[in-house]
Amino acid sequence: MRIPALLLLTAAALAAPAPARAQSLADFDYENFSFRGFGLEAGYIWPDKIQPAPSYGVRMDLGYLGPGLRLTPSVTYWSSRMKGSEVAQLENRVDSLIARQQGVPSPGVDLGTIDWSDVNVALDAHVVWRVPLGFLTFLGAGASVHFLNGDGAAIADTFIEDLLDSISAGLALQTGLEYPVNRHIRLYGTGRLELLEDIRYSALRGGLQIQFGGPATGEERQR
């Protein structure tokens, strides 16, 4: 199931036994708000209208805007094939349109296979705190712009392709864990729920981030 996996990850973050330390993270505004690193990531998505598919992306760490509040822009790409049931619904709608316009039953429309891809540009805000064993965890939300593109031999240069090609705003809920390997390398994993008008999906991502300038106040590993 898609949503339970994300909820389980959220519960794991909330159930951490150590007290939250967000108050000690970057306790002064703007001093830790600067470009601190970038990460390369890969993951998997579970959408409601297309087949599950891998995703690839890059994220940037802009540091802390205030106590424990971190900003992380990202760009993510995925591409997959639309589910057969969704294609069948489109075919039925086109059949109905033809029948209404011509006044006779449609001979049947075959749209073949349809691919859908997305370039997602997002800005996320994370509330970050330290947990035992040197880990950091976070909960967050973000806004995004999705550049969706539909493709298929049967829909090329048709109104169906125009419907699938769109620029959509989205919202995301997320949680995750990070492990600072050293001052300059950080491993992280993220669970996300992406909400768009045309499509919804949950996602799991993992990545490696290169850090500049070391940890911010409150991120230091306990010895």
Question: Can you give a write-up of this model?
Answer:
There is one protein chain. It is built from 3 helices and 8 strands. With 223 residues, it is α+β, with helices and mostly antiparallel strands. 17% of the residues lie in helices and 51% in strands. It has one domain: Porin (Beta Barrel). The two termini are 39 Å apart. It has an 8-stranded antiparallel beta barrel. It has helices at residues 2-14, 84-102, 159-164; strands at residues 33-47, 53-66, 69-81, 115-130, 136-151, 166-180, 185-196, 200-211.
Layout of secondary structure:
Elements: H1 2-14, E1 33-47, E2 53-66, E3 69-81, H2 84-102, E4 115-130, E5 136-151, H3 159-164, E6 166-180, E7 185-196, E8 200-211
Task: Pick out its properties.
223 residues, Porin, eight-stranded antiparallel β-barrel, 8 strands, disordered N terminus
Distance between the termini: 39 Å
Percent of residues in helices: 10-25%
Structure annotation, total helices? 3
**Radius of gyration from the CA trace?**
21 Å
Mean pLDDT: 83
- Sequence stretches where pLDDT stays below 50 over 5 or more residues: 1-23
Count of spatially separate domains: 1
Assign the structural class, choosing from mainly alpha, mainly beta, alpha/beta, alpha+beta, or little secondary structure. alpha+beta
Shape: elongated
Order of helices and strands: HEEEHEEHEEE
CATH fold topology: Porin
CATH architecture: Beta Barrel
Class in CATH?
Mainly Beta
Question: Which strand order does the major sheet show?
Answer: 1-2-3-4-5-6-7-8
User: How many runs of DSSP E, i.e. beta strands?
Assistant: 8
Reported for the largest beta sheet, the result is:
8 strands, antiparallel, barrel
Strand percentage lies at: over 45%
